[in-house]
Amino acid sequence: MNKVLEINHLTKKFGSFTAVNDISFSVEKGNVYGLLGPNGSGKSTTLGMILNALNPTNGNWKWFEEEPNNNSLKRIGAIIESPKFYPYLSAHKNLEIVADIKEADYSKIDEKLELVGLLERKKDKFQHYSLGMKQRLAIAGALLNDPEVLILDEPTNGLDPQGIIQIRELIIKIAEQGTTIILASHLLDEVEKVCSHVVVLNQGKMLYAGSVEEMNSSFGSIEVASTNIESLQNALSHLPFISTIKNENNKVIAVLNEEKDPAEINKILFEQGIVVSHLVKRKESLEQQFFQLIQNQKN
Ligand SMILES: Nc1ncnc2c1ncn2[C@@H]1O[C@H](COP(=O)(O)OP(=O)(O)OP(=O)(O)O)[C@@H](O)[C@H]1O
């Protein structure tokens, strides 16, 4: 069984406002999924619903190919808000309390503290931990009962650069051990560095779901200039392998929808009487792809 989560037409309305609008996607075992979108795009609301903390307005989902039930939630570890630990207790003592709640064996505590790099600091009080250490302790707590899925909401928010790197490396390490990870993030580079798959959300709508690699390996765009920019623009807009065009600093940026060699494009334009003074092909980064998706949604 490889399907960990299947979401179908999930919708959440708060009054007349639609926070999550008819989204559907699946999560396959052993991958790291990024739920990517700007603030307010519906990431936390989506996570809240699939963790039974919020009632959906419409749609449904299945964990592990079963209707949601208490048993399936036991197979999931989640950190969706600031971790709640007792400040005056040690990290180890705090995890004993978590282990009691989750009915996990105390022997797991040192194992998970080691995984998150806190074993040597296990006797320190929680209140003396840095923000990054607190977040890693929360991850250790979420992993105590060896969940098959780990869900994280903005795991690097508020951390310094070193703390961010440590959390990202930790996520990759946990995934390498076979745990499926779903993380919500508004940071494109985070998703690009950590995730194998991405679901792009904007204003509650799903704009893309697929592998990060595929999203990155689109056909790119070309940047073209000519003395007669209007006829250039007109010619490009009629070419079947071009999806969108825009003007930028007297150059036309045209997004390709199939693989094309710049020399071939130059030849086609020349045959239409257009002499090109500049033609560069660019591969789009995930960031450009993301803005392109949001732009397409607005149009
Ligand atoms: N309980 C609520 N009542 C009314 N509106 C809400 C409620 N919870 C969330 N919203 C709205 O739903 C939209 C989506 O919020 P959500 O928290 O899911 O976004 P997000 O992508 O997680 O963003 P952020 O990273 O800022 O948390 C926002 O416009 C938010 O204001």
TrEMBL record:
Keywords: ATP-binding, Nucleotide-binding, Transport. PANTHER family: ABC TRANSPORTER, ATP-BINDING PROTEIN. The keyword Cytoplasm does not apply. Residues 5-228 form the ABC transporter domain. Belongs to the ABC transporter superfamily. InterPro entries: AAA+_ATPase, ABC_transporter-like_ATP-bd, ABC_transporter-like_CS, P-loop_NTPase. One of its GO terms (molecular function) is ATP hydrolysis activity. Coiled coil: none annotated. This is ABC transporter ATP-binding protein.
